C-alpha cells in the first residue's frame, strides 16, 4: 500500500470541500482497502465519510429512499424493503458474506470495482487499470466474464447484485458536489467500456453518492432476485436475474427485468419485458420471451455457455413468481 493522506469529514460540505482530483471516499472500505493493498488503487488522499448524515431507509407513497451510507445488512433486513421490494432484499442477501454486509455501504456497493482477476493483478495488462495496456482476459481465462456490452478493450463483468435489482426497478442515484446536487438514473449512471473502460460511471471527481431513490411500483412486491454461481456463498454471479411481474389474472400486465453476471454493467432487458406483456403467464410464454435476452451477446470460447444460462435463469425466476 502506498502512502496517503487520511482525513475524516464531519459534514457533507466538509467532505466535498476537502476532496481533490486524486481523492477516495472511505465508507465500509470493503473494496477500497483491498484494492489499495494490491496497489490497484493508489489515491493520494482518503476521506472517511462515516460521520456524514447519510444513513436512512424511508418508504412512502413516492417510493423508497435509502441513504448511501446505510449498511447493506440493515437494508436487507428492513421489514418494508422485504415486503414491498423483495428483489432488493434478496439481491443484498445474495451478496458477499454476513460480515461484509454488516460493513459495506449501499453507495459503496454500487461503486465497487470489477472482480476480474487481471484487473487486480498489477503484473497483467488491463485497460481498465492502465489504459492502452491491453485486455488479458480476451485471450486468457474469461469463463466468468461478460457477453453483453463488451468491447475489444474490456470484457470485465459488473459485480454488483444490488445494482441489477435497482436497474430493474428504474432507480436513480442522487449525487452531490461543490456545484450542487444532481440526480442520475442508475441505468444511465454506468458506462459500457467502449474504448475507455477506465471510465466506469458518470461520477465526477470529488462527487458523492448521497441517496438511492426507487420510484413507487405497487407490483414490485411480486419480485425476485435469482443468482446462479459456482458455490452458494460469497461468490459472484455467472448469471442473475432481477424480475418484477405484474399479473392480472392469468396474464402478464407488465414486467421489469434486468440481468447480472453477464454484462459490463447491470443490463436491462426491455425486449424481454415487451415480449411478456399482454401474454399468458405460462412457461411457454416465459421461454419464448427469454429468447430475446440473448440479442447482442458476444461470447468468447470460455463463456459460450452463458446465453443458455441466462435464458434458463430468466425462466426459472419468472416461474417462481407465478405461472
TrEMBL record:
Task: Answer yes or no on keyword Thylakoid.
Answer: no
Keyword vocabulary terms for this entry = Oxidoreductase
Query: What Pfam families does the record tag this protein with?
Result: CO_deh_flav_C, FAD_binding_5
Entry annotated with the keyword ATP-binding? no
Stored PROSITE patterns:
FAD_PCMH
Q: Which residues form the FAD-binding PCMH-type domain?
A: 1-219
UniProt-recorded name of the protein = Xanthine dehydrogenase family protein subunit M
